[in-house]
Write a structure and sequence with these properties.
With 473 residues, the protein is an alpha/beta fold. Helix content is 39%, strand content 22%. The chain starts with a strand and ends with a strand. The mean pLDDT is 94. Bound molecules: adenosine-5'-diphosphate and phosphoenolpyruvate.
């Protein structure tokens, strides 16, 4: 598998045990459930499918529950086509169509407070836009700016405006509770605007007795402006290109993506690029040239992971998407230049002794042409290894499934849950963890006679960091 990880959103196209199993075998390292769709009954169905497939395949597969956040979406109605110049009514009241047939239901009252005459409304990911021509207490009249199909349950954004909706939203709170019920690996926070939003989320989550990893989606103007303080207090960020493309001019997106990636890497936090990764594969079994080049370039930006949305949720080819992604990632990784890696590392400062030791560990293993095999109880050491973007294989054993899941979306790490293997040797878990992992890797042919292994662990209680070099015989 490549060093850049693949995460896939589940949806009608991937709501199937065999599809999910194939996706994992082809290289999916984690799944996302977008909780803006469905309810607890559908979310649990996806959780079970992923847990069944991952335990059958013996792999730790993280689950990301994505909260809708303080966003405004349309409600349920029959989809209809519109043509440029049509007049359409948006209303919270299904009966309030003023004699019009074409009515878009938007329940949130914040939408009607925020909309003014002349505003541009972007629908979905911007597939259709409207201009507001008249407003009322619970309706807005718009003129359609381009032809398209108006589908239900899509995002409704007013260009240049943010809704004053409470954070966390009512659905967010349900997702937080559900995350505790199913012990989800991560919760993704949508429309995070500031450090305060993350703190509010943490506060509610802690009341459910389970603290998942936190991923902030950077997607609004305030989220982007405040990303420094946000990144400090989360495990990772998603560059949510779908919404960024609604809140910023599209031509600004490349620079915004690069700035978010740079900031996350500077803080040693996971960074995931999302949306329209291989969008051309929603309806086609082969990706477009521009999609291939975009994905190749993201690998060159040394991101941790890419996250599919439409491609695996409603696309026709969820398994082929993963297969193509692996091909493109592997090609891009085999062509990464040394200059790029050293420029990247030159921009990172080692923060403390452990950090400096890990920096040296990665350089040592690379200069030996070796493989790192380590054991970790807290996740600190492998997180740092990943931060240096190792260009050799790294296998890490960890003490529990949750930690294995959490680390699995990080750059360059192959994680194994060793809880079974170390359970009778807890006082020597570091030593036994490494030894048993090497044994397993030899058995599975991942390590062969002649291979050089750099074995390592960092015991937090003793401040002893050990490195041992072994050649497989
Ligand atoms: N759990 C689900 N149930 C049904 N449809 C879903 C689900 N998750 C995603 N989808 C479909 O896949 C599309 C793409 O997913 P995503 O990008 O996560 O959503 P959105 O753009 O609506 O926020 C959604 O618009 C929706 O049509
Ligand atoms: C991943 C994204 O979020 P969502 O699908 O929730 O809109 C995005 O905006 O790119």
């Amino acid at each position: 598998m490549g060093k850049v990880k693949i995460i896939a959103t589940l949806g009608p196209s991937s709501r199937d045990y065999n599809v999910i199993r194939k996706m994992i075998k082809e290289g999916v390292a984690g799944f996302r459930i977008n909780c803006a769709h469905g309810d607890e009954n559908t979310w649990i169905e996806y959780v079970k499918l992923v847990r069944d497939a991952s335990s059958d395949l013996g792999k730790a597969i993280p689950l990301i529950l994505d909260t809708p956040g303080p966003q405004v979406r349309s409600g349920d109605f029959q989809e209809f086509t519109v043509k440029q110049g049509d007049n359409v009514v948006i209303s919270s009241n299904p009966g309030n169509d003023g004699g019009e047939k074409k009515i878009i239901i938007v329940p949130a009252k914040e939408f009607y407070t925020a909309a003014s005459t002349g505003d541009i409304i972007l629908y979905g990911d911007g597939e259709i836009s409207f201009r507001v021509v008249n407003t009322g207490e619970d309706f807005v009249e718009v003129v359609v700016l381009n032809d398209g199909v108006v589908k239900p349950r899509k995002k409704v954004v007013i260009e240049g405006k943010e809704y004053p909706v409470a954070f966390p939203s009512e659905v967010d709170r349900r997702v937080f509770k559900f995350a505790g019920d199913v012990k989800a690996t991560f919760v993704a926070l949508s429309y995070v605007r500031s450090l305060k939003d993350v703190e509010l989320a943490k506060d509610v989550l802690s009341r459910h007795g389970w603290m998942p990893g936190l991923i902030a989606k950077i997607e609004t103007r305030s989220g982007f402006i405040n990303m420094g303080e946000i990144i400090e207090v989360v495990d990772g960020v998603i560059v949510a290109r779908g919404d960024l493309g609604l809140h910023f001019p599209l031509e600004k997106l490349p620079l915004i993506q690069k700035e978010i990636v740079r900031e996350a890497i500077k803080h040693g936090k996971t960074v995931i690029i999302a949306t329209e990764i291989l969008e051309s594969m929603v309806n086609n079994p082969r990706p477009s040239r521009s999609d291939v080049v975009d994905l190749y370039n993201s690998v060159g930006d040394l991101v941790d992971a890419v996250l599919f949305t439409n491609e695996t949720a409603i696309g026709k080819y969820p398994v082929e998407v993963v297969r193509w992604t692996r091909r493109i990632i592997e090609a891009a990784e085999s062509e990464l230049s040394r200059a790029l890696i050293s420029e990247y590392r030159g921009a990172i400062k080692a923060m403390n002794l452990l950090d400096k030791y890990v920096q040296g560990l990665v350089l040592l293993a690379e200069s030996l042409g070796g493989t790192i095999v380590g054991y970790s109880k807290t996740g600190r050491m492998p997180t740092l290894v990943s931060k240096y973007r190792p260009q050799i294989k790294v296998y890490i054993g960890v003490s529990n499934r949750f930690l294995a899941e959490k680390l699995s979306i990080k750059y360059g790490l192959e994680i194994t849950d060793m809880s079974q293997a170390i359970q009778d040797n807890l006082e020597k878990e570091y030593e036994v963890g490494v030894e048993k992992l090497v044994e397993t890797l030899v058995k599975q042919n991942y390590l062969r006679p002649g291979d050089i292994v750099v074995e390592t662990y960092a015991k937090p209680q003793t401040s002893i960091h050990e490195i041992r070099i072994r050649q497989i015989i």
